Amino acid sequence: MYSLFFQNLNSKVQLTEEEQEQIKTYLTLKKLRKKQYLLQEGDVCKMIAFVEKGALRAYSVDENSNEHIIQFGLEGWTISDLYSFLTGEPATYNIDAIEDSELVIISKSAHEELLQTMPKYETFTRLNITGAYLAMQRRLTSIISSSVEERYQEFIALYPHIAQRVPQHMIASYMGLTPETLSRIRKRISSK
Which SUPFAM superfamilies match (predicted)? Predict the structure, then answer.
């Protein structure tokens, strides 16, 4: 069950068998059924989830009950409300399963202890946070400088596996569009 987690970790920092076994003692496994919550807005996020199998999404809901997806999490990715996790403030996002999912969970206390006791874990965490920041910066730059068609084509190029597994209305939400607008964009692109 930890194979993808350790494959991902070892791709960034090489661990010995002993170090892997040590980290395993800090991890828990969790299964979510489709539509089951990992986190609800208003609760304090006390874990980071690594997706071994399945797909999740992080999103907020506005006053008109419209969902705004800010992140997907598929196999090999982590998902959390990082602001809530780091500050202890209530979460602003919901996280739920798009598909039946299997997760590797690291609690806040386990995360803090590993940061203090295992330099390789600290390096892994720094690299993950840096990667997440770069992805967020790329997304913001795209939002302010690219047309909607260009943004959709970039999304499909960067994340073809998401486009094949996630319903179109969720992709529209992630892009800040209505499903009808996304449908028109897809039609324009395919007719070129």
Answer: cAMP-binding domain-like
